[in-house]
Amino acid sequence: MNFIIGTAESSDMKIIYDDTNVANIKIINLVPEIPDNLVNDKIKYYLIKYGLSNLSLIIYYYGANEWVIESRIEALSNSFH
Amino acid sequence: MSLIENKVFLYVPAYKPNFIENAIRINDKLNIILCLEDGTPDANKLEARYLVKHAANEYFKKTGKKIIVRINAIESDIWKEDIKVTIDSKKVSRIRVPKVSKPEDIILIERYIESLNCNLQYEIMIESKIALDNIEEISKSSKCIYAFTFGASDYELSIRNGSIDIRSDLLNAREKLGGFCRENNFECFDSTFMNYKETELFKIDCEFSQKVGFTGRSVIHPLQIDIANKIYSVGRI
Questions:
Q1: Is the Cβ pair A71, B18 closer than 8 Å?
Q2: Searching chain A, which residue's CA lies closest to the CA of residue B61?
Q3: Boundaries of every domain in chain B
Q4: The domain spanning residue A58 has which CATH number?
Q5: In this predicted model, what pLDDT tens digit does every residue of A25-42 receive, in sequence order?
Q6: pLDDT tens per residue across span B43-97
Q7: Does the domain at residues B8-232 carry the CATH identifier 3.20.20.70?
Q8: Which of B46, B54, B60, B67 is the best residue to mutate to test the A interface, defined by the most A CB atoms within 10 Å of its own CB?
Q9: Domain of A46, in residue numbers
Q10: Quick check: A68 and B57 CB within 8 A?
Q11: Do B54 and A74 touch (CB under 8 A)?
């Protein structure tokens, strides 16, 4: 099973989930003005909050603000129901 | 301009975070309606609910105002999820309910909202002849009805087969709805005007709309905002 949450548009974030791979979180920051560690910390915070930090995810970050990051991750968590 | 005074509404597709953020930036001129219905494709509806939930919080944090959400119609099987997820933020002031045709539609929604221990106000979309014919009964179905709004595109579809003069029938429908709301003291919001580049025609249409009883309008483009604000800000005439 795999699915995609979000888009590659500016101010958004795209999450690709693939359950055929081993658990691994890969975050790709496509906004050079924002340091990678800030992006990683924020995204990982919400992955932990919603219990998703042990999944196989590729996350492309396109400048999403915090409320968008949380929205996309909460949507992902509800996609399994 | 506070939410109470400002009767201009911008539809924003709920699945587009950049559109939502742009709308929040111009919030002082209008109210935002996040659209989960026609403005959001089926494939994006689940994600869009969570964008609405968190956008409502963000909007409130930045402006002190609550958001309006257009949910999916009763005939869909997803309107309950729309309500359940989006009101979780507690920053939704009203829901705009599309394709209402009879009082039972509102009673069903109200029962569901009450089961969630919430209360909300409703904006009821009149989008068919049958709905307009039932407006008196619909208006009595709940004490939480804040406004009626006219949905011209779907109304036109509902009369297309039997109509000889669609333009005239649409004008008559708006007069009937505006007149009913005026007599019964409901707010009444007119439909979107799709040719946003035709600003002079839009102005004339808003003047007609206000004359027949409408107190505000939904817009689809920033070009329309100042025109609508100027005309509807004088209140009901």
A1: no
A2: A67
A3: 8-232
A4: 3.30.230
A5: 999 999 999 999 999 999
A6: 999 999 999 999 999 999 988 888 999 999 999 989 999 999 988 888 998 999 9
A7: no
A8: B54
A9: 2-78
A10: no
A11: yes
